[in-house]
């Protein structure tokens, strides 16, 4: 009897695999149709059948939507609440009811860690490293698959790290500097290759532990460093993948990089939060920083982080208070930039990092 049930189950699986996605249509045509369904309805698509669920969660689906410019970017934010617990939220910026939603299932071992990095590659969000009061720097990495809404363990870092920079360049994740368990860890960086699912470690004396921010600009990684034993001022180093080494960045650029940064169409923007919130722009041709405008203190809740979708910059502060403005059409009223806002949470969670993930 058990054998018969097993055989019947096997037959049903074969029939399911052979059944078309949409009756009367070849699967490639069905994919063309289904891939045009907006991302906010993907959860509903997965409820139709097992084949639809597997398709919507597949790399094929992600690659097709990306290739045909159908993918939609959502914002993911890593936060810390008043109980010092880490949590993750997501925002659909295209929704008519724009509001932040909590992502369930956060890895319990990372709940109290500090100094973790947060990065996006493909359709996954990565949570890397970190440490605690009674825990040294760890090499643990967790990934959140945005298409299946699940957290899982990923390949560990080559080097245990906390308070380090993390960026994506040329399809690889770079984990840079920070603090580790060995004396040479602060002067190293790891690269993750998703095709081999492995990390590779490198060394360079120009990398220092005290890293405050990082960006990718002109196909290069810039990291802004604090003071070190060699210098009493803030400076930055830049990584050129064609050379494979780190060098000091130009001092005139670093001078104005005094806050969270974002790159829009190859231009670097920085939010200066020292006296209110003022957006600055780096002009590469003239080698000067130019003030774009101020943001209303009634809308922003510093300290803030920046992300960009197209020409829209999102300024995300405490409680995930969110201010949005179009950099391609910046308007001013009394010197204050015209913007829209998204209501904050009832809590005052601190925002650690924000990233964009498109599916």
UniProtKB/TrEMBL annotation:
This is F-box domain-containing protein. PANTHER family: F-BOX DOMAIN-CONTAINING PROTEIN (PTHR46344:SF26), OS02G0202900 PROTEIN (PTHR46344). Keywords: Kelch repeat, Repeat. InterPro entries: F-box-like_dom_sf, F-box_dom, Kelch-typ_b-propeller, Kelch_1, Kelch_FKB95. Residues 25-64 form the F-box domain. The keyword Transport does not apply. It comes from the Eukaryota. The keyword Repeat applies. CDD domains: F-box_AtAFR-like (cd22152). It comes from Vitis vinifera. SMART domains: FBOX, Kelch.
């Amino acid at each position: 009897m058990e054998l018969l049930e097993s055989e019947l189950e096997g037959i049903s699986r074969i029939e399911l695999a052979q059944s078309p996605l949409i009756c009367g249509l070849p699967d490639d045509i069905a994919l063309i149709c289904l891939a045009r369904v907006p991302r906010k309805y993907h959860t509903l698509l997965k409820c139709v059948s097992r084949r639809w669920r597997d398709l919507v969660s597949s790399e094929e689906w992600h690659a097709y939507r990306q290739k045909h410019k159908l993918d939609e970017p959502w914002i993911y934010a890593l936060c810390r609440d008043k109980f010092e617990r880490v949590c993750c939220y997501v925002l659909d910026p295209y929704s008519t009811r724009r509001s932040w939603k909590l992502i369930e299932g956060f890895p319990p071992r990372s709940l109290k860690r500090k100094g973790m990095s947060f990065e996006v590659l493909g359709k996954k969000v990565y949570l890397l490293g970190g440490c605690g009061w009674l825990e040294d720097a760890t090499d643990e990495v967790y990934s959140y698959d945005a298409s299946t809404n699940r957290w899982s363990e990923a390949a560990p870092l080559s080097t245990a790290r906390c308070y380090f920079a993390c960026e994506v360049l040329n399809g690889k994740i770079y984990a840079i500097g920070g603090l580790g368990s060995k004396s040479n860890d602060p002067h190293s960086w790891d690269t993750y290759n998703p095709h081999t699912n492995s990390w590779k470690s490198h060394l360079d004396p120009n990398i220092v532990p005290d890293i405050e921010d990082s960006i990718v600009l002109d196909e290069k990684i810039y990291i802004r460093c604090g003071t070190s034993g060699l210098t009493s001022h803030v400076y930055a180093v830049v990584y050129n993948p064609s050379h494979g080494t780190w060098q000091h960045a130009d001092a005139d650029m670093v001078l104005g990089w005094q806050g969270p940064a974002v790159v829009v169409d190859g231009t670097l923007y920085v939010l200066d939060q020292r006296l209110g919130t003022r957006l600055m722009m780096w002009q590469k041709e003239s080698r000067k920083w130019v003030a774009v405008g101020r943001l209303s203190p009634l809308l922003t809740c510093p300290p803030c982080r920046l992300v960009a979708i197209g020409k829209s910059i999102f300024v995300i502060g405490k409680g995930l208070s969110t201010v949005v403005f179009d950099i391609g059409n910046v308007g001013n009223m009394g010197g204050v930039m015209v913007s829209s806002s998204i209501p904050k949470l009832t809590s005052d969670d601190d925002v650690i990092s924000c990233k964009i993930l498109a599916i």
